[in-house]
Amino acid sequence: MRNSGDLKAPVKSEETRLRILNSALDLFREKGFEAATMRDIAARAGVATGAAYYYFRSKDAIVLAFYRQAAEAMAPELEEILAGSADAKKRLAAILNAKLKYFEPSRRLLVALAAHVDSENPLSPFSDETREIREQDIHVFERALAGSKLRIPDDLGGTLPRLIWLYQMGIILYWIHDRSPSQSKTAILIDKSLHLIVRLIQLSGLPLMRPLRRQALELFHAVAD
Hints:
Elements: H1 4-31, H2 38-45, H3 49-55, H4 59-82, H5 88-103, H6 107-113, H7 131-146, H8 154-157, H9 160-176, H10 184-204, H11 210-224
C-alpha cells in the first residue's frame, strides 16, 4: 500500500515547480527577460539554484512552460466563446480580446520575447518547440470559423485558420507596442481589420474570385512549406 509520504511528494514537487515558474515570471516582468538570471529566480522562489535548474534547465524552458500555462488557463474561456455567437467577427474578436486580457500583466515580457522570431530559436512562435502550442491555437481558429455562419470556399478552409493565426500574431505585436490609452488603437485595429477580413472571405467565394483565390493560396503555400 502506498503511504501518505508517497502521495505528498508529487504534490510538493509540483508546488515547488509552480513557485519557481511564478517567481521567474514576476522577475521577467520586473527586470526584463534578459536581466533576470536563474540565480535570481531561485532566490525569489526560496530554493537553491540547483533546484531551479532541476525543474527548468534554462530560462527558455521557463518561457515555454509559461506558454503552456497560458494555453491551459485560457482554454475554458475560449470554449465559452466557441459555444456562443455564430457571428464570425464577434467570435474572432472575442478570442483576440480574451488573449490580450490574459497577457496584459506580461506585456513587458512579450516585448522582450518579440525579438525571438527566428524559427531556429526555441522561443519563437514558429519554432519546433512551440509547434504543439501553435497547432492548438490554430485549431481554436479552425473551430471558430467552422462554427460560424460564414461560408468559406472549400479550397480556402484548410488554410484560413493558419492565416488567421498569423493575423493574430500581427495584432499581438502591434498591441505590445501600442502606447495609446488602454491600447485603444489596438481595439480599433481589431474591429476594423476583422470587418475587412470577414468581408474579403465572403467575397472570395464569388466565382469571379476563384482564379485570384487560387493564386493567393499558391503563393501562401510556396512560402509556408
